Task: structure prediction
Amino acid sequence: MNYLVTYIALACALLASCYGNDASLAPRELYQSHLDLIASVEGYVNSPDKFVDGEWQEHWGDGALFGPLYDLSKHRLEVSPEHYARGIEALEANRARVLEAAPNLSAHLDDLETLSMSTLSLIESGQLVDDPEPYREAAAEMLIGLGSIAELYKDYLEIDAGDFAADSYGPTSLTAFLANVYLGYAQNYPEDNRDHHLERAGAILDRIHSKVWDDEQSVYLFAPGDERLMLYPNVTTMAALARAYQLTGEPRFWTRFKAAFEGVQALKDADGDHYHSPYSRESMGATDEDYTTHSSQNYFILALMTAYEVSGHSLYLDEIDAMLGFLKERLLVDGQILHHWIDGRAAAEPDPYIYCLGCNVQTLFILYRLAIL
Result:
């Protein structure tokens, strides 16, 4: 009997270490453990030629969102007027872009990626700026057009326009981003019809689930009928699911998040510090399965951060720590976190893409958000 009690106690301790509510490393401590990564990346991206006339350079779309969020989050933590001013300058450029496109969004679908990122920047900055109202107003205008497009495509965006909807990321990822637009608006501007925006986000997430959930693999598919196991559609949907659960408390969202998290474990590398992301593996010429991109790890980390916020499970922070370590140890070269890991090396000539500044400021935003959770 004593052996049985001891066995049960050890088993409970093991489960607690993996799924318990006491994190092995607090978010602020995790941030502090990667201060060297921050210093290295900031030394490169803060060069004056990397931000010109309100626009981040070499950013491949992500900079429109994560550039200002990085600056504003850094200011929130450290009180940096220079970064706050640069964040506002970027937001103003995004606001002008959104207001120009919003009245006739269907004519701007080829620019849907940049418009989506710009709109999200206006939404997610709501709790980081002194006067959020101009950004709320612009985002609300864009939501009208996005709502019409969602209605046209019955809440699943099988649409051949914009970089998101091309071969790179696929319609499931694009639709998950749309859900996150509604969720972000509800969270940052709750006084403006919060229940409606949460309802719309829930309807979109339910549509994604009915359209592309693969019960056998326990993952969300890249697109209907496309049975490849892909990271992007899952981590983008997981980020929205965790946030939906955070804002509504509806159990189905958390249940789906946990199921997808288990499914994508099939993409985890044997080293345990990164996940394979094969969406651009063929176009980059990879010859083995150990291929992943900087941005895919970033988006997974964002999903895990919200999962930690709503659960307190140390498992999610441990995963974040491991992936940040991978970025630092494998992809960081001379202040640049490079675009991908391929054939046992970091991105390099003659690879088609080597570096994305937008992904680098996204990592900086992640680290500063950890510090202010």
